[in-house]
Design brief:
The complex is a heterodimer of chains A (869) and B (284). Helices cover 3% and strands 63% of the residues of chain A. Chain A has 869 residues and is mainly β. Chain B is an alpha+beta fold. Chain B has one domain. Chain B starts with a helix and ends in a 12-residue tail after the last strand. The chains are: A mainly beta (869), B alpha+beta (284). Chains A and B meet through helix 1, strand 2, strand 3, strand 12 and strand 29 of A and helix 1, strand 1, strand 2, helix 2 and strand 4 of B.
């Protein structure tokens, strides 16, 4: 800069002394005589490096140089892209000067580029933890939050560029198998040296450069001082009322060849103790597991779980990892949960019966459930560029029992014992050979459950003729299931056309044994008639071949798939389940798409048993032994419009479905007892819906307003008291919403939802009064200073079907959080209005359901987290 | 040799990736010179650049193109991946803007991309008409935009200062452009009136340019003469034409990232807020 000023300083006297010189002219090409544009014309004093001035020729090849200089002669240079440089020394006076230049390939001194930091394509970003941490941080999760592109959720889930990471490594090893919330919320940042972000991380080396992933992985590099030693920290939490506790304990060890991490969480504050024990990776194949027998209890409200969960939970997790050689690693994870949950509430179900009669069942319900859950996984993994093998063995055991009480004129006691065991193995192999890639997947699982439900007193005398000495009912239910899924696939990509072929085989074997018995006070069980027992097997074998073709060109994209499925289930069947989809992009703003699909489905073992099963004290089910079959077809059209410059987004569409079924279900009501039966009576259900969603950004208020509306209409039939009842249901909802970032220290969101449910029985008097429900949710977040956060939430619910008492419910919460170097304090005040019940009402089929669920009272909780070792 | 291979590799990837997403590219010129510039961005009152990217300038006789091959390569790969998703299962599609505060990151099946890394623009200078065409996008999965920027003759002030940059003798020049003051170093040994970004109009290639606040700098780090001409291609068939002001407005509010969620056939596309504050080079 100084040099620059000095130069000007020295130049000035000359400039003033000199007269202005103007040189102009044109530049043409020698070969064709055409004028040349964009040619540089510079003027220099002789023997100087710096130029006095310069000009570029215009479209006509004209240039003009105006400068002041006192020297006698100057050097004019004409140069251009791929033109031979031409210089001429002229007398320093105003004149016209034309040039005729010749084309000549340019020859440049090349500069070899040093490999630049093009880290984006395929590399690792390293963040030094010390560069991001400050005194308000404690855990690595706190520091991760501040690293560019990284977000950490409350449950510990990490997002890189707002997308969940696909792997979480510690010292390059995946110890926690997705339960890395334990790590982010517990490892202290002082023990970590570097956080590495592995962008576009393909965890399977054999798929690298074959299958693109845009997901990232995180690797924590620990400090040497944290390796090979045991570290531990804890949380204590207490509050009122009643007496509350919320405690945690955590330890870790990272050595060469072995890693270990353990955690304990326990609370009675309504928090889900298993939150950190759940895998944050997306899960693979699984057998669905649910209880077939149940204790009658009110259905849980559709509000935040910690408002209504009365728990007493202890959860523990032990994780170990060993490495063998360079390529093999073995993982063992054990999780255990012990929980006691209490539920209390009131429900009223109203059933429409033919001849315009109504059946009303009112129940005051209370239940206590004890849950013991053990989860064990062993995984062997080798990950090489040409070869990937992963074998996971998993065992889950759940021992739960529940006692329930229905308070009516006489109370009905229920006692459920529902142990379940599941053992599964999944195998995944990928082998590369030159340009070919072969993939095989196999899953085998075995699931067994042996449930019993006891109900006292003996309610249905007519089922148990003559067992007058018995005073209770006992239902046993035993289901064994084996399931195997195997497939091989490969694809061919040929420009506009894509082909994909999958060959698969699946086996599902089920064996059901159940019996409904009368039980005497002495404990003697009386065996009963065949109509109350089941003992049979249902096996399903399936082989399928699924070709799939995609054509995409310009504005169109179409996909067609026509799997051929051969199924053996009671008898042989061959199915063809085609589907079709097309998208057309009208222009940058409008998009149209349409789809159609057809498919065949079957019911499972739960829909074909012929002996009665008492699922709950007032729900007895039997089937006529026919396999339910459904033929489903659906069609949809969707239109979307968006104008990004005006920040308008709009999406609207409609769908239609029609299902044809071979069986019709019927319910008979004997007092409070409902009996479900199936009838061989082909029938159909159909429906349609419309939806629209739009949003508009308002820059002035840095807010967005959005609006959603849905309407659906469906019709179906069932049999009630031996008469076919056709019913229609109609729902609609509208949801306006506004969200605004008020300033750097505050933001808020407000949502309003209005819903209406309407049911109608076609051949009867309209017994259903429409139900209206409103929901309002507002949240305000304030950040007064660094490390200090205040959250305030307000919710309001209204339901028109609440017959007695208050139709509105209000909730408010406030939380303050302060983070210090070695400790973290959090003060929560939940359910400030001390709202005691959540009341809801809705329609299903031909019944109305109304329930009141008891909530947790107002509570204050104080939590402290600190380091032990 | 190894270095050349690395560059060739990178180049190959980005070209093929771009080719996947474009159907209507047109060749506007053939380049005979390729320049690499290191683009450093700094925040005020900091010493170290928070972001460094390698930019490429292709120079032809009639036109030149300046862009970030790594960024465009990455984005095209992601776009291609999303475009090649199984549309058979798509039932509905919803789009949410950044400040709608939608966050689907916890939902299974969500993928996303950041726009905070690298530069998304392609700056095409037409030497005959002196027009600049900018192709850019505020979000990976969003629309492509195009605006024309007529700069006229840039009011460069030549100074007598000389220096050697990348072994070329350079002369300096200063320029006030859209709210920022720049100092450039150009060499008449490369008689090409071009330079990084929107800069041109000096009687030689600009090898280095930085603003006086030291927030932005472009420095030549590589120069190659191409034995086989490389076509300069642009894909603007589907781009929405707008003004520079319109585009800057979009960039300021939308430049965060992108989340795409597939769940039971329902596709949700949501933009997310930006982590870094966007510092525009053009403040007027």
């Amino acid at each position: 800069m100084i040099k620059h000023k000095l130069c000007i300083f020295f130049m000035l006297p000359f400039s003033f002394a000199a007269a202005q010189t103007k040189i102009s002219g044109t530049v043409t090409g020698k070969e064709d005589g055409k004028s040349l544009a964009g040619i540089n014309v510079t003027v220099k004093e002789k023997n100087q490096t710096g130029m006095l001035t310069y000009a570029l020729t215009d479209e006509k090849g004209a240039y003009q140089l105006i400068y002041k200089n006192a020297s006698d002669s100057v050097l004019i240079t004409v140069s251009g892209f791929n033109m031979k440089k031409q210089s001429e020394t002229i007398v320093n006076k105003s004149q016209i000067l034309n040039f005729n230049i010749i084309a000549q390939a340019i020859s440049l001194k090349e500069i070899k580029i040093n490999p630049p930091k093009i880290r984006q394509l395929n590399d690792t970003l390293n963040y030094l933890v010390d560069g991001f941490s400050d005194k308000n941080d404690r855990t690595i999760g706190d520091v991760l939050k501040k690293m560019p592109g990284i977000t950490v959720k409350d449950n510990g889930a990490i997002l890189y560029n707002n997308k969940p990471i696909n792997k979480f490594y510690i010292e390059d090893k995946d110890l926690l198998q997705g339960r890395y919330g334990i790590a982010t919320n517990n490892i202290e940042f002082k023990d970590v040296a570097t956080v590495q972000v592995l962008e576009n991380h393909q965890p399977i080396k054999a798929l690298k450069d074959r299958e693109f992933t845009d997901e990232a992985a995180i690797n924590l590099k620990l400090k040497d001082s944290a390796k090979g030693i045991l570290t531990a920290n804890a949380q204590l939490g207490t509050g009122l009322s009643p007496a509350l506790w919320n405690n945690e304990l955590f330890s870790m060890y990272f050595g060469k060849g072995r890693q270990n991490m353990n955690a304990y969480k326990g609370n009675n504050t309504g928090n889900d103790a298993t939150a950190e024990l759940n895998s944050l990776y997306s899960e693979g194949h699984n057998i669905k597991q649910g209880n077939s027998l149940y204790v009658q209890s009110p259905s849980p409200p559709s509000i935040n779980q910690n408002r209504y969960l009365f728990n007493r939970a202890h959860a523990a997790s032990v994780n170990n990892l060993w490495t063998y050689g360079k390529d093999y690693q073995l993982n063992a994870n054990i999780n255990y949960l012990n929980d006691r949950q209490e539920k209390e509430g009131y429900s009223r179900s109203v059933y429409y019966l033919p001849a315009d009669s109504l059946l009303t069942i009112e129940e005051k319900l209370a239940s206590t459930e004890h849950i013991n859950l053990l989860d064990f996984a062993l995984q062997l993994n080798t990950n090489k560029p040409q070869y990937y093998l992963d074998n996971s063995l998993k065992f889950t055991g759940q021992w739960s029992n529940e006692e329930g009480n229905v308070l009516k004129s006489e109370s009905i006691l229920q006692d459920l014992n529902a142990p379940q065991y599941k053992l599964s193995n999944s195998f995944n192999l990928i082998k590369n050979h030159k340009k070919l890639s072969f993939k095989a997947y196999s899953y085998n699982g075995y699931n067994t459950t042996n449930q019993t439900l006891g109900v006292a007193p003996l309610l249905y005398q007519e089922l148990f003729n003559g067992h007058t000495t018995s005073n209770s009912i006992l239902q046993s239910f035993n289901l064994n299931q084996f399931s195997s899924v195997n497939r091989v696939s490969f694809g061919i990509n040929n420009g506009d056309w894509k082909q994909n072929y999958t060959l698969g085989a699946e086996v599902n074997l089920q064996h059901l044994k159940s019996s409904l018995m009368a039980k005497a006070a002495s404990g003697d069980v009386t065996s009963t008639a065949d109509s109350l027992n089941n003992d049979f097997q249902l096996n399903k074998y399936e082989v399928y071949f699924r070709p799939e073709y995609t054509y995409s060109k310009n504005k169109y994209r179409a996909t067609v798939s026509f799997p051929v499925v051969y199924t053996y289930l009671l008898k042989n069947r061959l199915f063809f389940n085609p589907s079709f989809n097309i998208r057309y992009q009208l222009n940058s703003f409008w998009n149209l798409s349409a789809s159609a699909r057809y498919g065949n489905e079957f019911g499972g073992i739960e829909s074909i048993y012929t002996g009665y099963i008492m699922h709950s004290y007032r729900n007895l089910v039997r089937n006529d032994g026919q396999l339910p079959e459904q033929k489903k077809q659906s069609y949809g059209i969707d239109v979307s419009y968006r104008h990004p410059i005006h920040a308008i987004f709009l999406n609207a569409g409609t769908n239609y479905f029609k299902n044809e079924m071979n069986l019709l279900y019927g319910y008979d009501y004997l007092g409070i007892l409902s009996l479900r039966k199936s009838y061989n009576n082909p029938n159909s259900a159909d429906g349609y819906n419309f939806f629209i969603r739009m949003s508009k950004g308002i820059d002035l208020l840095s807010s967005t307003i959005s609006f959603e509306a849905n309407y659906s209409n469906s019709a179906a039939s069932q049999i009630s008291q031996s008469e076919i009842v056709d019913f229609k249901s109609e729902n609609y909802s509208i949801t306006p919403k506004i969200s605004s970032k008020i300033s750097k220290w505050a933001s808020f969101v407000y949502t309003f939802t209005h819903t209406q449910y309407k049911n109608k029985v076609s051949n009867g008097v309209d017994n259903f009064v429409p139900i209206y429900a409103n929901k309002q949710h507002g949240q305000l977040n304030i950040f007064p200073s660094k490390g200090f956060i205040v959250n305030m939430t307000y919710e309001n619910y209204y339901n028109s079907a609440v017959a007695s008492g208050n139709r509105t419910m209000n909730f408010a919460d406030i939380a303050l959080k302060r983070i210090f170097k070695k400790m973290e304090f959090e003060l929560q005040y939940a359910n400030i209005f001390n709202t005691k019940q959540y009341i809801s009402a809705s329609y299903s089929d031909i019944s109305t359901y109304y329930s009141a669920y008891n909530l947790r009272p107002a509570q204050v909780l104080m939590k402290i987290k600190f380091k032990i070792k | 040799m190894k270095r050349i291979l690395i560059i060739a590799g990178i180049w190959g990837i980005s070209i093929s990736a771009i080719a996947q997403t474009t159907g209507n590219k047109r060749t506007i010129d053939n380049a005979s010179i390729r320049c690499y510039y290191l683009f450093n961005k700094k925040k005020e009152a900091t010493d170290k650049a928070f972001r460094s990217d390698t930019m490429v300038l292709y120079i032809g006789a009639k036109a030149s193109k300046f862009y970030d091959p790594a960024r465009l390569g990455r984005d095209s790969m992601l776009t291609a991946k999303i475009k090649n998703m199984d549309t058979q299962t798509i039932k509905s599609m919803n789009i949410y803007k950044a400040d709608s505060g939608k966050d689907f990151s916890n939902m299974p099946g969500t993928t996303s991309s950041s726009t905070a890394e690298g530069e998304s623009y392609q700056i095409i200078k037409d030497k005959l008409t002196h027009k600049i065409n900018v192709l850019d996008y505020p979000a990976v999965m969003g629309d492509r935009f195009q605006y024309e920027d007529e700069l006229g003759t840039l009011p460069w002030k030549i100074s007598d200062n000389t220096d050697t940059i990348a072994s070329y003798v350079c002369q300096s020049a200063t320029l006030t452009f859209r709210g920022r003051d720049y100092k450039a170093w150009f060499t008449t040994d490369i008689p090409v009136n071009d330079g990084p970004w929107k800069f041109s109009g000096l009687p030689g290639l600009i090898l280095k340019i930085e603003d006086t606040k030291d927030l932005f700098s472009f420095t030549l780090i590589g120069l190659e003469q191409l034995k086989v001409a490389v076509p300069i291609q642009i894909d603007d068939a589907k781009a929405i034409k707008c003004s520079r002001a319109d585009f800057e407005k979009l960039r300021k509010k939308q430049g965060g990232g992108m989340q795409i969620n597939f769940n039971a056939g329902n596709v949700i596309i949501a933009e997310t807020a930006r982590e870094f504050e966007y510092i525009p080079m053009e403040i007027e």
